[in-house]
Amino acid sequence: MRLLIDSQLLVWSAGSFSRLSPRARTLMEIEDNTLLFSAASIWELTIKATRHPDTFKVDPRLLRRNLLNNGWEELPITSEHGVATKDLPQIHKDPFDRILVAQAIVEGAALLTADSVLATYGTPVISV
Q1: In sequence order, which residues have a C-beta less than 8 Å from that of residue 78 and are 6 or more positions away?
Q2: Which member of 72, 106, 115, 124 lies 3.0 to 4.6 Å from 67 by CB, making a disulfide possible if both were Cys?
Q3: Rounded CA gap, 52 and 88, in Å?
Q4: Comparing C-alpha atoms, which of 6, 14, 19, 114 is closest to residue 58?
Q5: Cα–Cα dist 118/63, whole Å
Q6: In the sheet where 2-5 sits, what is the strand order?
Q7: Which CATH superfamily does the domain covering 2-127 fall into?
Q8: pTM (2 decimals)?
């Protein structure tokens, strides 16, 4: 299964693995699953790190490098992903979360999230 991991879970998987739910850990540890991270997540985390350098301690450049070094695949943002956001219900206003849902749909991946609002999109979102 192709699993697109949302931004919050990316941060937890890199530095606070114990914060991941047992279900999230299990899905991410299945060897046959392909772990994906979106360029949108790295962009979002870069914005947070730039705006809040004293409180947001994630280095997006280091996170990206570590994900790639550990076999994760980077999912770029395409115009097809952007256009697919038009068809999404207006459940979530966050453009980063909306692009993640669109990417999961277009790419045939499941989006793993701990965000209860994001989870209301239903398939392809998996609440963990």
Answers
A1: 106
A2: 72
A3: 30
A4: 14
A5: 23
A6: 73-75, 34-38, 2-5, 110-113, 125-127
A7: 5'-nuclease (3.40.50.1010)
A8: 0.94
DSSP 53-77: TTT----HHHHHHHHHHTT-EEE--
**For 79-105, what is each residue's pLDDT tens digit?**
999 999 999 999 978 999 999 999 999
Q: Which of helix, strand or coil describes residue 28?
A: helix
Where do the domains of the chain lie? 2-127
* Alpha-carbon span 115 to 113, nearest angstrom: 5
**CB within 8 Å of 46: residues ≥ 6 apart:** 60
* C-alpha triplet 18, 23, 28: angle, nearest 5°: 80
- Prior bond to 124 cis, omega within 30? yes
